[in-house]
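Quick start: read one record
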Amino acid sequence: MTKAPEVRVNERIRVPQVRVIADDGEQAGVLTVREALALAQSRGLDLVEVSPTARPPVCRIMDYGKFKYEQNRRARKARKKQHVTHVKEIKMRPKIDEHDYGFKMDHARQFLTARDKVKFTITFRGREMAHPEHGHKLIQRIIAELVEQASVETPARAEGRMLTMVLMPKPPKGGVKVEAKETAGEAAH
């Protein structure tokens, strides 16, 4: 992870002149660094370089501690909202029992609802290798059953004694939340 360049504050600003923006957002104009520092200190605030590449560099008079706190808070909020997608694997056999199949499909639905990808692996043993069409039928059944929640990311592929396929969750529909609110509103009336 690359670290953001450090913001220069007060005496660390080493240029002859800066464009100053006051704490109320008004332009104070182009001043020498000494004048800008004196102005900031008279208000009990810091001089913070916000745009070092501009000519002359732009500095703002503000409370640096509060500025750093707000930056960290925004970064935490962004991290909280982000979702890391995991690949969950579900293993099956071509002659899977109906109850086991249903149980594994329930797990697949849970994973897809949690916005994770699901990798289906169908393993062939012994004489089952002579009938790969049973595995392909099972894959088609899975796709048909999960068509509402997922789309195929990697189509079924035979790799030795295994047949694998990866499904990814479909993006959530925007209208679902609106309908839920309308239904709740109608129930209240």
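The CA atoms of residues 148 and 170 lie 8 Å apart.
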